[in-house]
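Consider the tokenized backbone below.
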């Protein structure tokens, strides 16, 4: 079989896969039986292309169908044809983003996107880079904070144990990983109190910073979250920014999940004050639906990013003086780096700013519809106020003794049925169910189907019907 025929057949299967929005999201199979039926053998002699096509087909059949409407589990999902094309083209034109010489148009595209995102954030000037995700975007933010506080640290190193990072109690776990990697340690990540809606309390931040300083710690970074992972809460960015200014601490905003609100005239108030930040991370692979990974890190002070990414002139085989101003590799912690901007660029060309705005507003309307369905039901209850498209709720009925166990089991049965995937989390001591709307295939009828199935499962459980 020629490569032409192979690619035609493989692409036909891929196209059928991504354009099929019917049927189940997942076919639940226990890991123990899957390991018996899945062939992962790495052969000593290569397979024929016909056999490879069977592998393509079998792989596609056995995935979780993250593009289907019932998929509302993590903060991403769905399918966007333009960005999919961008992903394929990035692979086909396989290059690395470190130099203009190797990625001329891609460099211009990445710069254009970073500029536009920076403008949305409200920085008059600045720069940025694409990272391997919001987690590393947060780490880069902390590293820039360290660089700002200790300009010589890239060269002379640092004992991070006397530094402190401040985040809300509901911040993403990646901040702990950053503290670990940078040598600050989990113990010096100070978790600032949140109010009952999961929003950081600025007065508590002020108190925590003062107390850390009096205990001999140097604050290097405050991270506010714009869209927390579980509840979708937005910390008060302006108030936090004023506190950072007062103490002269680096201010990073984790907008990995909530950044897209900036497109919507109606919802961008959620991030009022983001312009106070020194750096921001914003995942286009979350609400904007670009295939994983596509994550921007935006900074007000390009020199700091450059210093953090500095490697002297040891990479003389790659970077040359005449291209100093244009090579993006001087602003990244990576050497080889995927062309992640291309898929976002294609998507943006297709959607336009107005398309992004409608996407966000449609998701918010859908989230509000789901919230309405929950509130109308006597058996379901909202477990947190809603600012974004995270809908936190649970099944509740006075006759149930152990609500946490009941809701956990309910979700397990829902996942095993295969029509929907939603996440389970904790708020305080309570187990909650948390669908999020971040998938263009979700419609009002999808949400109505979800509520109906949840109620049906709950009724079966209460009647003692075992799960089949
Ligand atoms: C608020 C927040 N920040 C950061 C991250 C990490 O993003 P990534 O998965 O792109 O590393 C997440 C992931 O869900 C998140 O919810």
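A designed sequence for it:
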């Amino acid at each position: 079989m020629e490569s032409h025929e192979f690619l035609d057949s493989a692409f036909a299967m891929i196209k059928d896969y991504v354009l099929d929005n019917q049927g189940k999201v997942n076919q639940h199979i226990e890991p123990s039986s899957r390991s018996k039926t899945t062939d992962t053998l790495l052969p000593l002699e290569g397979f024929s292309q016909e056999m490879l096509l069977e592998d393509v087909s079998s792989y596609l059949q056995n995935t979780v169908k993250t593009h289907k409407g019932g998929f509302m589990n993590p903060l991403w999902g769905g399918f966007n044809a333009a960005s999919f094309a961008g992903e394929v083209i990035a692979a086909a034109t396989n290059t690395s983003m470190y130099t203009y010489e190797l990625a001329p148009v891609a460099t211009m595209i990445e710069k254009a996107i970073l500029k536009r995102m920076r403008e949305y954030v409200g920085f008059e000037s600045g720069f940025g880079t694409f990272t391997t995700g919001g987690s590393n975007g947060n780490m880069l933010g902390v590293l820039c904070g360290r660089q700002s506080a200790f300009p010589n640290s890239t060269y002379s190193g640092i004992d991070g144990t006397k530094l402190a990072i401040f985040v809300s109690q509901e911040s993403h776990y990646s901040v702990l990983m950053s503290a670990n990697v940078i040598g600050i340690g989990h113990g010096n990540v100070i978790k600032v109190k949140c109010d009952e809606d999961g929003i950081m309390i600025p007065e508590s931040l002020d108190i925590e910073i003062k107390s850390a300083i009096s205990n001999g710690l140097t604050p290097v970074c405050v991270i506010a979250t714009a869209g927390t992972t579980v509840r979708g809460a937005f910390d008060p960015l302006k108030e936090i920014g004023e506190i950072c200014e007062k103490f002269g601490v680096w201010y990073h905003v984790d907008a990995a999940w909530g950044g897209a609100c900036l497109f919507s005239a109606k919802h961008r108030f959620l991030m009022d004050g983001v312009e106070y930040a020194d750096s921001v991370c914003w995942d286009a692979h979350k609400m904007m639906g670009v295939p994983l990974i596509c994550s921007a890190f935006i900074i007000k002070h390009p020199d700091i990013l450059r210093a953090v990414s500095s490697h002297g002139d040891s990479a003389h085989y790659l970077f040359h003086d005449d291209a100093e101003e244009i090579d993006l590799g001087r602003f990244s912690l990576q050497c080889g780096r995927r062309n992640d901007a291309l898929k976002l660029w294609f998507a943006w060309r297709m959607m336009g700013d107005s398309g992004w705005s409608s996407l966000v507003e449609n998701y918010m309307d859908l989230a509000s519809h789901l919230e309405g369905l929950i509130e109308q039901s006597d058996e379901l209850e909202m477990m947190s106020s809603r600012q974004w498209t995270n809908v936190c709720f649970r099944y509740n009925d006075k006759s149930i003794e152990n609500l946490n166990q009941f809701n956990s089991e309910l979700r397990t049965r829902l996942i095993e049925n295969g029509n929907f995937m939603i996440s389970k989390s904790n708020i305080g001591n309570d187990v909650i169910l948390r669908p999020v709307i971040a998938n263009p295939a979700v419609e009002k009828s999808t949400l109505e189907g979800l509520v109906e199935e949840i109620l049906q499962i709950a009724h079966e459980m209460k009647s003692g019907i075992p799960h089949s």
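The longest strand covers residues 218-225.
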